[in-house]
Amino acid sequence: MNKHALLSASSAHRWLVCTPSARLCEGIKGESSVAAEEGTLAHTVAELKLLKQFDKVEKLRIDKEMDEHTDNYVQWARELIDSKKTKAHGIESRISYTDFAPGGFGTCDLWALQDNGLHIADLKYGRTYVETSDNPQLLLYALGVCEKIGHLYDIKTIHMHIYQPRINNIKTSVITSTDLYKWATDVLRPQAEKAYRGIGDIVPGSHCKYCKMAGKCKAQARRLLELMPYTDKDLHTLQGDELRDALDKAAELALWADKLKAYAKTQLEFEGKEVPGYKLHKTAGRRYITDEGTERLEAAGVNPYEKPKLKSVSAIEKEIGKAETSSILDGCIEYGAEITKLMKEKGED
Q1: Whole-number Å distance between alpha carbons of 218 and 25
Q2: What is the rounded distance in angstroms from the CA atom of residue 153 to the CA atom of residue 147?
Q3: pTM above 0.85, yes or no
Q4: Are β-strands 117-123 and 157-164 bridged in parallel, bridged antiparallel, or unpaired?
C-alpha cells in the first residue's frame, strides 16, 4: 500500500485548485530538505511521547529545543485526550475520505471526541505561518474522522487546531458538520474527480511552492514572467499596492529561479538533453589540509588553526534549551544594534 495517496490531505491545497497537478506530479521523486526531515522527526517524537514509549525516544537524536517543543505539545494534547469529556480519541490515525476523493486518505496527528464536538489537531514544526480557517488539510482530516466514527456518534461541531510551537501559533477554527459535508459535496468531490482523472485547468499560484512540477511547469513560468499591470498613480516609482504586489512576485520568483536551475541541471547532467546557451561547469571542491599538512605547518611555525568562535545564543538554546540557557546566562547576554526585517503580515496570502 502506498504511503501517500494521490489525493493526499497534505497536498490538497494544491490539487483542489490545480487539478491536473496530482497526476503531473505522480511518479516524480520529491526533494528532501532539512526542514522536512526535521518535521518528520518532530512528529515521530511527539507520537512516541503520546504513546509513552519513552525508551524509543531516547534512541533518537533530538536537540533540547525539539525535546521541549514536543513535551509542550504532548502536554497540550494530553489535556484533550485525558479529559473526562473525551469519549474517544486517535493518535496518528489513518483516515479515509475516499467516498469524496477517489483513493483519498491521510494520517491525522490527533483527534478527540468530546461533549462539545470533535477536535482535530495538526502539529506543524516549521516556521511558515499556517492558518486554520479554510485549511483543506484540516477539513479532510475532519471529514475522514467523521467518516470513521460518524455512525457511532452524533457529531455536530468540529474544532480544528493548528499547533505550531516554534512561532507560538496555536489557533482554532470551528465548523459545523453540516457545513463540512456541504464543502465535501460541493467543492471537494467535483475537484477531486478532476484531479484523479488528471483533467481541468492548470492554475499556478502560491500553492506551487512545494509542487514537484515547480521549475518545469509552463503555466507557472508564464504567470511569474508576465509583466505586472501598473497604474498611473506615480509614473516612476512603485507605491502602496503596486509595491506590495511586486514584493509578493519577487519572493515567488526567487524560489522559482532555484527550482528552474535545478531542473535545467537535471536535463543536462542526467537526461543528456541540451539547454541552448548553457553548459555544466565543474569547479574544484573545497581544499582541506591533511593531518600531515597540519604537522608541517606547525613545524614551520605557522598556526593552522583559527581562534575559537563563540556559539550564538540561538545555537546554545537549541543545544540545552531556552530555560537552562536563560538560567546560566542570566545578566550575561548583550544585544547588538537592532535589526529591522521586512516580513509579510500573518494571515496574508
Answers
A1: 14
A2: 11
A3: no
A4: parallel
Beta-carbon contacts of 139 under 8 Å, excluding residues fewer than 6 positions away, are 12, 160, 175, 180, 183, 184, 188
Of the candidates 63, 70, 65, 64, the one whose C-alpha atom is nearest the C-alpha of residue 42 is 70
Task: Tell me the sheet residues that pair with 157.
Answer: 176
Q: Which fold has domain 12-197?
A: Lambda Exonuclease; Chain A (3.90.320)
C-alpha cell at 211: 509542487
Measured CA to CA, the distance from residue 102 to residue 5 in angstroms comes to 9
* C-alpha distance from residue 74 to each of 57, 82, 162, 163, 282 (Å): 13, 11, 14, 11, 48
Query: What's the rounded Cα separation, in Å, for the pair 294 and 303?
Result: 9
pLDDT one-digit tens code per residue, 71-110: 999 999 999 999 999 999 999 999 999 999 999 999 999 9
- The residue type found at 300 is A
Q: Is the pLDDT of residue 349 over 60?
A: no
**Strand runs labelled E in the chain:** 88-96, 105-114, 117-123, 157-164, 169-176
| CA dihedral angle for residue 111, residue 112, residue 115, residue 118, rounded to 10 degrees | 10
For residue 88, which of 181, 173, 151 has the smallest C-alpha distance? 151
Identify which of 184, 188, 127 has the alpha carbon closest to the alpha carbon of residue 343.
127
Task: Give the whole-angstrom CA distance, residue 114 versus residue 274.
Answer: 60
Treating both helix axes as pointing N-terminal to C-terminal, what angle do 64-81 and 34-50 enclose, rounded to 10 degrees? 50
